[in-house]
Amino acid sequence: MTQKKFNTVSLIRKKRDGRELTSEEIQYLIRAYTDDEIPDYQISSFLMAAFLNGLNDTEAAALTESMLHSGIVVDLSETPGKKVDKHSTGGVGDKLSLILAPIVAACGVPVPMISGRGLGHTGGTLDKLESIPGFTVDVTLDRYKEILKKQNLVLVGQTEEIAPADKRIYALRDVTGTVESIPLIAGSIMSKKLAEGIDALVLDVKYGSGAFMKDKEQATKLAQTLVGIGEKFGKQTIAYLTNMEQPLGNAVGNWLEVKESIDCLNGGGPEDVMEITHLLAGTMIYLGEKADSIEEGIEKSRTAVDDGSAFQKWLDIVEEQGGDTEVVKNPDSYPKAEFIEEVKSQKTGFVTKMDAYAMGMVSVELGAGRRAKEDDVDPAAGFILHKKIGDSVKENETIATLHTNNKGTLTDAKQGMADAVIISDMKPPVGKQIAYKVDKNGVHNYNKG
Amino acid sequence: MTQKKFNTVSLIRKKRDGRELTSEEIQYLIRAYTDDEIPDYQISSFLMAAFLNGLNDTEAAALTESMLHSGIVVDLSETPGKKVDKHSTGGVGDKLSLILAPIVAACGVPVPMISGRGLGHTGGTLDKLESIPGFTVDVTLDRYKEILKKQNLVLVGQTEEIAPADKRIYALRDVTGTVESIPLIAGSIMSKKLAEGIDALVLDVKYGSGAFMKDKEQATKLAQTLVGIGEKFGKQTIAYLTNMEQPLGNAVGNWLEVKESIDCLNGGGPEDVMEITHLLAGTMIYLGEKADSIEEGIEKSRTAVDDGSAFQKWLDIVEEQGGDTEVVKNPDSYPKAEFIEEVKSQKTGFVTKMDAYAMGMVSVELGAGRRAKEDDVDPAAGFILHKKIGDSVKENETIATLHTNNKGTLTDAKQGMADAVIISDMKPPVGKQIAYKVDKNGVHNYNKG
User: Fold this and answer.
1) What are the tens digits of pLDDT across the range B396-438?
2) Does the annotation mark A188 as catalytic?
3) Is the separation of the CB atoms in A389 and A352 below 8 Å?
4) Taking chain B, what is the end-to-end CA distance rounded to the nearest angstrom?
5) Is B188 one of the annotated active-site residues of the chain?
6) How many domains does chain A have?
7) Residue B440 lies in a domain
8) Residue B79 resides in a domain
9) In chain B, what residues touch A169 (CB-CB under 8 Å)?
10) Inter-chain contact B16–A53, Cβ cutoff 8 Å?
């Protein structure tokens, strides 16, 4: 990376005035900030200018590269084969990583997965994994490589060595109102993913009330930016735009989602979860060169569930990372939350709408999520939905069951859940789960073929 | 002022998303920043959002009020009469304050003038005053009131008690690329002027290459914002848009400009300087209720020069503030710069253009100005123009005389001066010095009556 010096104020003014920064200029800003040569107040001013005036694809790629090279880029060449990971932009009840990672690994594609924690209305894979007694997600990079080599799979958290500039810039964005910017989000995601040592990447970009991007067009733009950066770095990248208007599956909450994932790996589980799981897993298997097409990958994904090899891989990785396999084999033995209460329907009709964001906040209320980064989560807290959009419901029938160890939260949580479900007389049209596929060739309407 | 608490990030996001902040919200941001409850990096992000999305008149007034009340608002009621000041947005060769302040005071209107130092291509009134041996501009607020009461005039620098929030925010804007914003500039100017204790204000808003606002439309918008804020605070405010395409008068440099001002007060001096001086002074005399119209004020201004009362007031204030009146009476006794060199014309024709910005930078080069706030200035350095736009010039005739005590600067300065003057065969049309008058009733074309 260049060590050329620039005038920081001139670079801020350039972006402020809507002009394009060179890659060298962006590299200077990130490198000098990471080295404490530029103070927070100049970078926050730059970030706001970038937020409002945008960064084009070349600038976003330069930002990604600078953050990527602020730390270690892991060399996974000890593990043979094309390493493929999946990243989701986050939603409510999104436990897909827990299901597809063992499926894909069982199909012979190495999956080096570094995940994050939940914040606000969305859950995080690390919190879900940690609800399994003994499961550890904090490992060194050497151990990360070792687990992958041995299991073809590793499920851990970000280490200090991975993209430290991103960590620092993300923390600054969080307190300066500059989070929801497509190029800044894309740079943050891709710098971490590229640092993992992957060869290809599948992205699940969610839109709707339970997603970070409420708007489908914005989410599509994010998917295009992510794919553009991935391809620029020579990594095959395919994204799907998926619907987050209602929670994914029936379970929301850390252990409750692990339990639902175990059902899925054993051939059960909700249909909406398995539709997206097989699509993403099939695409990963295709990118990992263990299938000649995505369709063949999807077939292999289904077989890995049917023949038990995916569940076996799951047991293997739980054991490898210190988790209790007994509770995974017998999920009902897991200690239940102290207070379990049902939310009943006030009327008869059809569920026409669910506010996934509000439901995510109900799960936070019950103890399953975090309002601030420092908060602890309760592994047993959350809720199970008994109805989803399109289902018929009778007056006084149970819509959801709430689980919590904090009795004081129940009144608000029940009200929040009841308010989040709209019941009407008319059966609503069935929405599509997957809207678009985005790859290097562009945006494709998924439902038209 | 309210002590209500707000979420800082929410306020940044509100402005980022183009929404209007309430006066309470703006007051919170400024008060909490001044009290060290909000860090620099959040205010810089807010300032960039305000820069790009703007602040409307209500927001600009709230910003002004918050900064005004961060310090002392001086009570000048001990001095009878309506106190009137003048503020210029800064230019090259702008010595008008030195001439009009004694004129207006001599006409019976108290002038409490707090000025700034020069930076970059523009000079500052304080540097000019300090070129007079012994003249002190650093006084306490008590002494400030005492001088005004005694002399009907005071010419000093900003004290720590005046608008400290503005001082801090200005310093942050300077290093975060958020200087050139109309509402932020207006808030900064007006908070300081309102804190002085004035009853009315005349503004000289300059446009053209030698001004901060190059563009006439932008300068007009600034004038409107300044007048709007002044009137909102119940102070009669009148602004003039004046041309800064070429330096004002012939002298540029601290003592050289004082010397030209003395000529003006003695009935001489360049015509362009006296045209604007009498207009601004006449308007101040009118606002100070010592004339029934601006025209009558202009007549009184001319009389004060002709009858010697303005020059006598100048001698009085120089003496009051510790300056050497002998050198003011005999300006040729002032020690000259060591190196004085002429810049000659390369061709015969008419001066059609002068780059006032470039000439301002030549004066900085020679030692008359500052590149950074900490720099010292040389009181004797600068230049005298022998030609202005529209003048005919012969090959090898002197265009300008440079003055410096730093011989090493002469080569570049001579080249810079020669490059800044365009000579062509055609006599250019005569430009207007004053474009618009802006008052509470709107923008008026000055040259159409």
Assistant:
1) 999 999 999 999 999 999 999 999 999 999 999 878 899 999 9
2) yes
3) yes
4) 43
5) yes
6) 2
7) yes
8) no
9) none
10) no
Q: What is the ipTM of this complex?
A: 0.87
Contacting residues of A for B16, CB less than 8 Å apart? 48, 51-52, 177-178
Same domain, B380 and B355: yes
Q: Are residues B348 and B379 in the same domain?
A: yes
Q: Does A47 touch chain B (CB under 8 A)?
A: yes
Chain A interface includes B168 (CB < 8 A): no
Are A395 and A261 part of one and the same domain? no
Domain for residue A4, yes or no?
no
Check which CATH number belongs to the domain holding A230 and give it. 3.40.1030.10
In CATH, what number is assigned to the domain containing residue A386? 3.90.1170.30
Is the same domain home to A104 and A189?
Answer: yes
User: Min CA distance, A93 vs chain B (Å)?
Assistant: 27
* B98 in the same domain as B229: yes
Angstroms from B29 CA to nearest CA on chain A: 13
CB-based contact A176 B47, cutoff 8 Å: no
Contacts of B177 in chain A (CB under 8 A): 9, 12-13, 16, 45-46, 49
Q: Which residues of chain A have pLDDT under 50?
A: 1-2, 449
Instruction: Write out pLDDT tens, residues A288-324.
Output: 999 999 999 999 999 999 999 999 999 999 999 999 9
Range of the domain at B257: 84-162+177-329+433-445
> Which residues of chain B fall short of a pLDDT of 50?
1-2, 449
Chain B's closest residue to A47, CA to CA, is: B45
Cβ neighbours of A48 in B, within 8 Å:
12, 16, 44-45, 48-49, 52
